[in-house]
Structure prediction request, 306 residues.
Amino acid sequence: MSSIVSSRNPDVVRRAVEVLNAGGLVGLPTETVYGLAARADLDSAVNKIFHAKGRPADHPLILHISHSSEIHRYAVNVPPEAISLAEQCWPGPLTLLLHKSAEVSTLVTGGRDTVAIRVPANECARNIIDLCGHSVAAPSANVFGHVSPSTAQHVLDDLGDRVDLVIDDGGCTIGVESTIVDFTTSQPQLLRPGGLPVEDLELIMDRELAMPSGESRASGMLASHYAPNCSVVLAQNVAEARAMHEATPNSRILDHWDNFPLYAATLYTQMRQADKDGLGTIIAVIPPKSGLGHAIVDRLSKASFL
Ligand code: TXA
Ligand code: MG
Prediction:
């Protein structure tokens, strides 16, 4: 039986660490989406993540650490630019792809010699990782290919008894996954637009990020992903969305298209709600590709891919 515990429970950190140290799985709140966490140094626990999600073993996981100084424990030859970015943006919705250290199991990296690392902004999550004394591997806590979870209930809806303990910290404030930047290539590449807008990163780095190409690009960047059961169709603007809605029975227009932070924060909840309500189609107005709009467009395109 999986249990659920509030992040406000004074015993929450101790209970979560007990589960992790025993090789169990914890539904961990982060500012982006809920993660399915296991101690990254316990191969049997990491294996449970792949089984619970139905995720292919060659899809690498993100290591979550509690402080930027831990980067050198899990990564080697870290470029100064990546260190500077980590110091300025962590804790926060940014994942860095680096060369892995000997301490990182190839089970976590899908057989690669690179590792994805981030420090989540959620304080409860960081306290758990800190007390654990080791990084935790955590993909989004959904069934492979399905919509990511932005509440504790979403985690239970997808994984049920396959997760030992879920920590309820309410809805995720950002609502879309972290931005992933690859620092193992000659020029840093944007592997996934996410919660930290590319414009902000480029301003801090004082240069443009390259588009993904080569080895790193291939894994986990499937065309179809983040998808509800109903179909998702995209509208260029509100007028088009309204016309589509009138012409499509059992459909609904996604709310908050005019407010990017709210659109992102409610996107996955709205997709899941559409399935609960038995809708056939949801109609999403595509935002411009700027700020959080970039990540929203990316997720909507993948959800609508047939
Ligand atoms: O916001 C987030 O990043 C959330 C929360 C839980 O932290 N996590 C998340 O994990 O979105 P996941 O597993 O759903 O997505 C991780 C992405 C995948 O596309 C995976 O292929 C990529 O990161 N990734 C991880 N390690 C990699 C590596 N060594 N090389 C290339 N891609 C990697
Ligand atoms: Mg995911």
Observations:
- The longest helix spans residues 260-276.
- The domain at 3-205 is CATH 3.90.870.10 (DHBP synthase).
- The two ends are 35 Å apart (CA to CA).
- The chain has eleven helices and 14 strands.
